[in-house]
Amino acid sequence: MPTETDSPGVAATEARWVATAVDLATGSVDDGGGPFGALVLRDDRLIATGTNLVTSDLDPTAHAEVSAIRRACTELGTFDLTGCVLVSSCEPCPMCLGAALWSRVDRVVYAADREDAARGGFDDRAFHDLFRNPDQPWPTAVRQVELTERTAPFDRWLAKPDRVDY
Ligand SMILES: Nc1nc2[nH]cnc2c(=O)[nH]1
């Protein structure tokens, strides 16, 4: 059954926002940043923008989507972006998809895809491939270490009556 987000009106509006994200990404290059831009919308209103600030901020997590999510949370005074849409100039990498899931945005829409990003010299496709096929060797070793106290933080958390779940 078609949903409201499938309607031609929503698609046209969304296409305009995606074009805005692409313009932001192009402008980011001129400003010395990476070629990525993202927006967070709520009820078709712009809440926040983000560009890729990895090299300027010396922060490998400062992808456009993460920057936009952080700013939107600050703007709205919340860590929960339910009801919002994340719009990106490019398909989110696995880290940004994780950020989208954690932020609880309703939807993600994007323009360029991982193949386009690969042609631009970025590892998005390679990292997506690692998650899709975890048996291949990872450039970063990840392993669990045996520790009997491993669940102590969770036990303390669950026993905290005034905790803020997220
Ligand atoms: N989608 C996306 N992919 C990237 N790859 C490297 N940086 C970025 C970014 O900011 N956004």
From TrEMBL:
It comes from the Bacteria. SUPFAM superfamilies: Cytidine deaminase-like. PANTHER family: CMP_DCMP-TYPE DEAMINASE DOMAIN-CONTAINING PROTEIN, CYTOSINE DEAMINASE FAMILY MEMBER. Belongs to the cytidine and deoxycytidylate deaminase family. The lineage of its organism: Bacteria, Bacillati, Actinomycetota, Actinomycetes, Pseudonocardiales. Residues 12-125 form the CMP/dCMP-type deaminase domain. Its EC number is 3.5.4.3. It comes from Saccharopolyspora gloriosae. InterPro entries: CMP_dCMP_dom (IPR002125), Cytidine_deaminase-like (IPR016193). Keywords: Hydrolase, Metal-binding, Zinc. The keyword Ubl conjugation does not apply. One of its GO terms (molecular function) is guanine deaminase activity. It holds the Pfam family dCMP_cyt_deam_1. This is Guanine deaminase. GO terms for biological process: purine nucleoside catabolic process.
